[in-house]
Structures are given as C-alpha cells and as structure tokens.
Write the structure tokens for this entry.
Amino acid sequence: MTDYPDIVYEVKDRIALVTLNRPDKLNAWTAAMETSVKRAIADATRDDDVRAIVITGAGRGFCSGADMGLLQSIGPKGERRELRDDAASVTVPTSNLGPSLEGNYKSRFGYLFSVPKPIIAAINGPCAGIGLVFTLFCDLRFASHEAKFTTAFAQRGLIAEHGISWLLPRLTGSANALDVLLSARKFNAEEAQRIGLVNRAFAHDDFMDNVMAYSRQLAGTVSPRSMAVMKAQVWKSWFQDFNDALQIADAEMTKSFGSEDFKEGVAHFVEKRAPKFSGR
C-alpha cells in the first residue's frame, strides 16, 4: 500500500478523492504534502477505473498556504534548510491523446495540465498563497460559501509566484488579478465566482455532495477519451493561434470517428440506455 503523508487518498465510484490532511494547521502546505499529492495524482492517472479526480481539504480549510516553518527556513538567497522535497522524483504518466503539452507548463504544478483526466479543486474553506496557486492548475474549481481566498504574497514581502501572474489574469482578467495580487485582501466565494476564479459556489452544508454529484456525472456519462483530448486541446490553445487550434481539432475529430467511445456514444443514444465508455 502506498504511503501518503499529510493527505488521504481514496477511490470510490470511479472518482479519486485526494484530501489535504493537516486540519489543525488549516492544511498548510508542506514538502511531504506536495510529494504525496503528486504521488496520488500519478496513481489516479494510472488507475483505469478512475475517471475524475477531486482535491479538497480536511476540516474547515482547503489550504492556508505554505507552512510557516518552511517559510522561516528559507535563507536570504532562497536556500531552504528543510528536508529535500521528493516531489521532483515522482513521475506522473502522460497520455498520447490530444496535442502534447510537453514544454508548455514547466511550473512545479504544471504536470496537472497533462493528466488526461479532469481534476476538480473542491475548495471547502480558507484558500491562500500556494494553496490558491495550486487550484489554478486544476481544470475546475468549486467553492463552499464558507471559503475565503487571498493571494497573501504581498503581505509576506513576496511576489506573484509559481505562474500565478500568467494563470490568474486568464481566468479573471488583468484588473481583477492585479487587485487581489497587489492588495492581498481576503475575498469570499461569491466574489470568486463573480470574477471567474471559481466555476460555481455551493452552500456549505451540501457542498461536497454537489461536487461529488458533478464528478459522478463526468465519471459515468461522458467519454474518458473525449475528456482527455478536450482537456489537452484547451490547455494547448493558450500557445496557439486559431488556425493551429482548428487544424488540431480537425485531426482529432477524424481519430475520434475510429474510437470505441464514438461507437458506444452513438449506440447508447440509439438504444436509449446508459453509456458504457471504455476510454478507447
């Protein structure tokens, strides 16, 4: 059995659930947590039974940012005195479906874009700093009405790190991105939804029920192959012009016509039954 320090990993109903598990510290980010998350994502990617991945936090928070012990261990030249982070040694499988993202996202969390399965951040509570950055590399973000957000960096004397200066404006627009980066102010789930940071906000009492219901819809009603190709198309498009994207779409459509999932997609509709997609 794989060991996952600082997280809990479980699979049910074709959904891999990754729970950041330091509730007494509002799930503050650690080197062990980063390695465990990457290992869990790798395991979920390899598992053919997993169709969607959900990441959330234990207790009342999602992730309060980097553990203060780690921040205090950073020397004046950026050197770190904590134990070496092993996340770089974890290999996450990639897919040959859709356009390649190799070389496009070299950030520490860029591997999430290459995972051929949808990744959903279920933001159940406070989400700050590197915790917020991490969610930007997820494909979808849902928030509880009790979630609070802050970039936090400016209040720590830091800058927009790990790619947030590139990712955030593409979701919220540059004015909103600069607002929350420069001020480091706290804002709620309603505002996060309004500016496009999260897809949807739910009442806290049935938050995870709604997230898991959506995830089950992805896991049970649509083609895994289609999801993998479309995810790659979207994340590749930020590095393409329209004609490049259109050329890839035309080529991928032809490939789709020869797939098992296309045949099943037509068959289950005609036969008026639930789909049985294979992902091939």
Remarks:
- The mean pLDDT is 93.
- The longest helix spans residues 31-46.
- The CA atoms of residues 116 and 231 lie 7 Å apart.
